[in-house]
Design goal:
The structure is a homodimer of 232-residue chains. Chain A is built from eleven helices and no strands. Chain A has 232 residues and is an all-alpha fold. In chain A, helix 1 crosses helix 2, helix 5 runs antiparallel to helix 8 and helix 10 runs antiparallel to helix 11. The termini of chain A are far apart. Chain A binds a DNA duplex (30 and 30 nucleotides) through helix 1, helix 2 and helix 3.
Chain lengths: 232, 232
DNA sequence: TCCTAACAGAGAGCACTGCTCTCGATCACC
DNA sequence: GGTGATCGAGAGCAGTGCTCTCTGTTAGGA
């Protein structure tokens, strides 16, 4: 793709670093991610890696962005197979895609949605854009459902007027005419969905786990649709 | 409490180690927890700490147990101030106590409910008992509410019969006569509650955050009661 | 074509980590 | 009083992130 062979070699090395980093992330977890180990697997001395990656934190950021991208792609692929007016189906498809991806890549999922890695703060300017893909996909479903008159959340008294400060992107996407309780219901569903998924992936259901996590998740999806007010 | 002065000194040193460890946990996070730094703050050389704590993982386990205990105490204190038959109030009190404690101790909260710390697996035999205090408190509320005829979750087709394998303690506590959809609703509420709290504490609402997180949480509580089927 | 400057990797080194070992000093108990 | 367990200090090993210097290579301009 790029001009000089040096450029191509650099791009390939860069991709190798991310690939090896993801492998180590999957096997050892986020905080055990070691630039030296990546260098060893790359067949190179540790200081050479610093020609490509400024620091361990920057490698983490690369992996965060990579993870968001992959998750976003998985969600988009899942949405392609559901009719545009099947809003319950679309929401469920997003949820199932996130869960499946998280179960397949638990370490990356933990990096994105688990507790923050100590001493590491994801730089907002690089991660927010790909990081909002999932929630934007959800918001799009809810927004379209509302426009189609297929979303009527059970009202909960919305008191605070400044409740939805921030969320500029989401607010813009969902449309200014959507009432606040719909937005509140959406935020609840968003957090609750990731709560269900994280609970399962992080093993909070206990050492024995639940008998049939897939079936339980499907039940959760039904309650989730009800909570957000989606009409089938 | 203890016999020889040596025993008392040991107990005090042990408590100091946990206290200093919690301080470092709060300031630096879980994976940055360093036995050497704890030793420095304790005014002792690093190898001396190994007389008290077998490894860094064991210190983490101590902090996990400590955190579960403190959270459980906070929940119990909150429950003391709500009438026994105010089931919605009791569930909300538990939820607010967890949220308040998590906001006050985000690092410990992350240690308990965030992604797993790399390379560290909490030993089940020591952590499961204090770790179930919160969910058992929730289950008690739901169980009593069901017995009082004040819990009627919107049904979601419960298909899989082996869905609730595991959960021996919870099953025993909630009673065998509780139908499966109530248990499923409880599991949903449990995971969704911690999803809402984690979402806020881990900053997933975005860099700008939400305008009034406290008010939003109260709205979430209303939806949570509705989802679990609690009748006010 | 040659020269220069950017680049890539190697290696040493610093400060830190978890953890183990040995060696005196102290304490509890017989 | 003697004795064995305990405690702390210190050295040491292997690993980490990261910086520095040095050498070889490559790309692009004169």
């Amino acid at each position: 793709m790029a001009g000089t062979p040096r450029d191509r070699a650099r791009a390939r090395t860069m991709a190798d670093i991310v690939r090896i980093g993801r492998q180590h992330l999957a096997t050892d977890g986020a905080a055990a991610l070691s630039l030296r180990a990546v260098a060893r697997d790359l067949g190179v001395v540790s200081s050479a890696v610093y020609r490509y990656v400024k620091s361990r934190d920057e490698l983490l950021t690369l992996l965060v962005v990579d993870g968001y991208d992959e998750l976003g792609d998985a969600v988009d692929r899942a949405l392609d197979e559901v009719a545009a007016d099947d809003f319950v189906g679309r929401q469920s498809a997003i949820a199932r895609a996130v869960r499946a991806w998280g179960l397949a890549e638990p370490a990356t999922y933990a990096l994105l949605f688990g507790g923050p890695v100590p001493g590491y703060r994801a730089p907002a300017e690089q991660t927010t854009v790909p990081g909002t893909r999932v929630v934007l996909a959800l918001v799009r479903v809810w927004s379209e459902a509302y426009a189609a008159g297929r979303l009527a959340p059970p009202p909960a008294e919305v008191a605070s007027p400044g409740l939805l400060a921030g969320f500029a992107a989401v607010r813009e996407e969902i449309g200014a005419d959507v009432p606040d309780d719909v937005v509140a219901a959406a935020l609840f569903a968003w957090a609750a969905l990731f709560g269900c998924i994280s609970w399962e992936i992080f093993g909070q259901y206990g050492p024995d786990g639940v008998g049939d996590p897939e079936a339980l998740f499907e039940l959760h999806l039904v309650r989730l649709s009800a909570a957000v007010g989606l009409i089938d």
